Amino acid sequence: MSWLAGYGKDAGEENDNLGVDWVLQYEFGDIDQAQAIAEYRTLIHDLTEAGLRVQARHGHGASLLVCIRVPRDQLGHMIHKSRLKDWLCGITHTLPVGDEHTVAAADTPAEELRSVYHTITWQKELGGAGVTPKFGKWKHVTASFPLHDQDACGDLLRKWSKATVLTAEDLDIIRALFGEKVAFYYAFIQCYSLFLIVPAVLGVIGWMYLGPYSIVYGTVLCLWCIVFVEYWKIREADLSLRWGVKGVARLKVNRVQYQWEKEIRDPITGQLEQVFPAWKQLLRQLLLIPFASVATLALGTLIVVTFASEVFISEVYDGPLKGYLEFVPTVLFSLSLPVITPFLTNMATWLTDYENYRTQDLYDLAQTQKTFVMHFITAFLPTILTAYVYVPFGTLIVPRLDLLRRTGLETKSISPYTDFQVDTTRFQQEVIYLSMTAQVLNFGQEVVLPYVKQTLWQKWRSYSDRKAEMGRKRRSSISASLSNFLLIDLPNEASFLARVRAEADADEYNVEEDILEMCVQFGYLALFGVAWSLVPLGFLLNNWLELRGDFFKLTLECQRPPPIRSDSIGPSLLGLEFLAWLGTLSTAAIVHLYRGPISEVRLSYLLLTVFIAEQAYLATRFTVATALRKIFSDTISREEARRYAVRKGVLAARTAAAEGGVSSSPELLTTKPRHRVRFNEKVNVYCSTTDIEPSPDGTPSPTGELSHDEVLCGSDREAQFWNGPKHTHISTTTDMTDAGIKLIRALNTHKTAGHAPKMSKTA
Amino acid sequence: MSWLAGYGKDAGEENDNLGVDWVLQYEFGDIDQAQAIAEYRTLIHDLTEAGLRVQARHGHGASLLVCIRVPRDQLGHMIHKSRLKDWLCGITHTLPVGDEHTVAAADTPAEELRSVYHTITWQKELGGAGVTPKFGKWKHVTASFPLHDQDACGDLLRKWSKATVLTAEDLDIIRALFGEKVAFYYAFIQCYSLFLIVPAVLGVIGWMYLGPYSIVYGTVLCLWCIVFVEYWKIREADLSLRWGVKGVARLKVNRVQYQWEKEIRDPITGQLEQVFPAWKQLLRQLLLIPFASVATLALGTLIVVTFASEVFISEVYDGPLKGYLEFVPTVLFSLSLPVITPFLTNMATWLTDYENYRTQDLYDLAQTQKTFVMHFITAFLPTILTAYVYVPFGTLIVPRLDLLRRTGLETKSISPYTDFQVDTTRFQQEVIYLSMTAQVLNFGQEVVLPYVKQTLWQKWRSYSDRKAEMGRKRRSSISASLSNFLLIDLPNEASFLARVRAEADADEYNVEEDILEMCVQFGYLALFGVAWSLVPLGFLLNNWLELRGDFFKLTLECQRPPPIRSDSIGPSLLGLEFLAWLGTLSTAAIVHLYRGPISEVRLSYLLLTVFIAEQAYLATRFTVATALRKIFSDTISREEARRYAVRKGVLAARTAAAEGGVSSSPELLTTKPRHRVRFNEKVNVYCSTTDIEPSPDGTPSPTGELSHDEVLCGSDREAQFWNGPKHTHISTTTDMTDAGIKLIRALNTHKTAGHAPKMSKTA
């Protein structure tokens, strides 16, 4: 729980990250000592070769924590180069000031961390250290993450607990802390929740005056879905301009796993490009069809069987233990889902790997598409079965389930088939369950349960750590004394290292999952919302909590994600469009089916209703998209205006140069300085790099040789940390390698002594 | 016919445009002489004020032809400014070389003419003469056009008459002659025709082996439609990049008729913008719905009545004169259509005016949308009625048409109602008619008929001109001798002026009409093509002729259109998408209806077929669009590559400057010179302006004071023309005004004398 202790207002210095930019966790529990030392040596070599400062400390169990710091001038230069690249690829229109030695100050912590991330993960050709966790020769590097900014996160969570809605400034802060990809999720949930107010209010009115399955409410709901999706597209474009990430996908580097067929020099840009033929990828993508079929079959069968046996037990079966047996199918379903899902996920991952995408973005996109298919089936199929199979055809199907009677095993006489009555309210009950109970349960499962698990895990860990220490003390001999000494944290580092260890143990945050969850919620509303008009109200209340819970999860239960850039919520947008379309058809069908007695519904009229609804959907979507694009055209044309302004400036500079006889300096191409995001007027943890001048010879300071004043920028504790533990008297990089090796040996001694259990957590 | 004479290979000097850039026709037939003189004086004043050289000659009837020439250095400067503007608005990425006095050479005649067009039509604030034909104070300026380049057009037509397909080079030449908007039409018809080969070949096979209403052929046809539309979108984007017009709509100037509500200074660019609220325009656009309803009602009623009476006469009526009466409805329809259509067109124009668009592009777009609605109804409704009303419900409806019997007026006994058999082949017959006869008739109406009319009109005109001359000679007195003398062309100008007069009389070319015609053809294929598999073959053959006929019409029957830029075929693209969608539904329905006996078709199954077809359409379109975008992604990313290359160049320049200590000159921002389009290695009519230096003081040469060498660039005839007719000894602009006034007086004398009939042609 030490990593939570720092969350109090009075934490102050405790939350200091001691100038650590990034942490790698190296686990060597399942390899022998010699290999571990060799790998560790390569790791430190590669990192220092890339100009990084490193400090190693022991982690939980047989693992090392490698703390990494990028020298400030190198980092500033990386940031400048990254901005230049943005400009070259047309992401920004303003050419950054400076020459090839310029050191730039980051606008946001996220921008800084992104450059750190690139320095660590990019291949050596691109100027990075090439450390790709869990892949290739780095498969024992099990975690790679920056440290959380506890103060900023705490402030934000406290602020939100009092506020009703997120402001644009809040979104900017999230973007500054976690990058655009995460910020887009919060922008989405905020926009979606605000939009939910409309159907929530109408839903309450409808609940009081109209009743369920109202045509008016259904129409409004469908219209709302369409408007929301179309509005979000514009909002997304707007935000991507505000954050300067529009079209950012095109400058992403190749994935390490990408296999190209040939290298082509682009005739226009002269760049060497690694090409994998599009048609080949397209053919491979066709495998999505068998995958979707298998997933549908596997999950579908499971759901249908569960559903059928549930219906059978509750409606037909009348034997002993009925009360308990009713829960059996659901329990079996819940047990078998975790068996099937990982199998399908593995299949999806294999497929996505095979599809061979160039960038991580494209890879994630393809993977999310497949996850979406699976989510779609598990989330919506049960309710679809209830709405369209069980209720309308129940009288035909259910009696056939009565296998007991057919096989002559019935225990007592039940009413004849013709008397069987389908419970028509079952569908509505399911919708009510989905919008209230399921949301709460889901929140518990997503936020509360991991928190409890984490707490218990920490408790057990500290208990076993204490036990190991006792063992060490008991077995203390001269040969082991040094290594034991090594494994005790220095008092001024202890709380910091405890936090780092906890964060290294935490889960990786996957923003796509959160986005998908919201999409599924939107899907419930679009598909089944018409059955109970309080659904949007339930969702609205849930989302207030959800947003805060997700942020809690992000900051306290997960590793800080690398600040990836993105200009959209990704493939989920397509999912939203699909759900809005399917929702229109579904709403029309439900209203048609459930308004009157189901027995009177004629298939041809139902079909006609759905057909008309689809045409109405197509026409409405076209109209809404056109109208919204027109109304918000100034938002979209802002980008053009910006480019125009920059070009106008260039022209003016040229004219001025020509008239004044002064040569136009390229600096004139740049405009006003950027806005720097700070939190509550606090200066960032690091000293501002604005004042750092490039060293006199113009090159970044050589690796490891940290200029004196840089160390002084941070606190004394920070300086102590980076100068290495005093008792070992190590301060240079070579010494650091040795220190780490000593740690490995020390940890291995305990491992072989069998006292420290191998700690691998399966969350 | 004189304007056709120059089309022979031996024409040579006859085709010389004598350096005339543009021609305005001023008609004063219906106003009194004083007003005519005042207006003419203003016209010449405005033109010369904008720096243009003018020469006036008499036109046909009471009209003057004002020949305009832009001094070469002024034109070159206009071209340079236009390119700068392109760069500012992000249409091109390369900053043009030069300063504020630069004189650029045009890449194509179209670029040159566009600048001429801007000089004449742009408002005075923008540096033009502000002459907007047929509007406001210029409502007596009835024509405004550049002269055709007879040689180039003749060469092209001759080349095409031998070639099967147009090459990319041909499209470039059309673009160079007529601008991008026209070139896009030819690119479209070429792409469409090439695509037609696939269904044409399959159609022949289908015709031999499958018969009509084949499911296989229908599926292929629908798929083909979707692929074509999606491919064309990519092709269009590709061409717009090739021609450097992508996003060109945003730099278009305001229409003169545009009424803004407030002026806003853009916060980013600092430009003053005239704003009309988008929501207001949107509300006004909603009037499209009543318009579409009225149009549907008016045209629909007309078509239904015609259809019903035709059916009545052919199927039910059995009285006297049946053979003749059968044609009556069609004749009545053909007669009443020209009454209703102009009424609807006027309504559409009024609506579009009211919608108050900022640019001519947007205005044309809105107008075309409305025309599309009307075209859609008149073109498709009759066949839709046959396919979906007459044949399926004929047995129910037709007997009720038998009003004669009901009112007891029948002349002789006809078979009872139950015996009535609908002619199920009628639908197929109509499709065959549409794809063969109608195409030929349409071609005749569009190309041949106007040509014949024009020829006859010219014949009559020269006859009446001769008569008028005879009259002049008979009445020759001292007072009238000067004016008579004025009205006789100089021998070396006679043939040229005859051509100018003929072109002034010709129709304006409307490229939208040609595009719409192709869309309607595509619509026939998509909607009804499945009924007869030879339809695509018919269309393919027709289009070979159509393309050449349209070019013939453009170059010989119409005025040369101003070379407008555009980056798409415009709203017709939306029409194509709509037709592909409707075509899928229609094909599915037709196949379902007509494959077996119609009496056995059940509505619910038909609905199911159409419903499934729609889902298949949506899925296919999504897949095809995704796949094509992937396959042609390099086409689309070429734009990015180009920008990247330019920016890379800028950066290299900056680095070089920083390293070498040399100031980076803005000239480094520019890259390789552009390719200049010439025809068959002939040099353009005008001397190349590349060598023209700006005058020493840096300003363009003052108006009217033409430097000696410019006149010498052209032929002697050209010099003579621009120095004015020798006998009047006029050479300065003021004299030109007087000369024109004299011409007005002379022409008016004849008008009042009643010998020269007022010649207004209603084409």
Please supply descriptive tags for the structure shown above:
homodimer; 4% strand; 26 helices; two-stranded antiparallel ribbon; disordered C terminus; 3 domains; globular; 63% helix; 6 strands; disordered N terminus; mainly alpha; four-stranded antiparallel beta sheet; 763 residues
If you had to describe this structure to a student in words, what would you say it looks like?
The structure is a homodimer of 763-residue chains. Chain A has 763 residues and is mostly helical. Chain A has 3 domains: 18-146 and 687-753, no CATH class; 151-255 and 436-477 and 488-612, no CATH class; 279-425, no CATH class. Helix content of chain A is 63%, strand content 4%. Chain A is built from 26 helices and 6 strands. The first copy, chain A, starts with a helix and ends in a 10-residue tail after the last helix.
Secondary structure topology:
Two copies of one chain form a homodimer.
Chain A: H1 2-5, E1 22-27, H2 33-49, E2 53-58, E3 63-69, H3 72-88, H4 109-121, E4 141-145, H5 150-162, H6 168-178, H7 180-209, H8 215-242, E5 262-265, E6 272-275, H9 278-285, H10 288-316, H11 322-325, H12 328-355, H13 360-401, H14 403-406, H15 425-435, H16 437-474, H17 478-486, H18 491-505, H19 511-528, H20 535-557, H21 572-595, H22 603-631, H23 633-660, H24 708-713, H25 716-722, H26 733-753
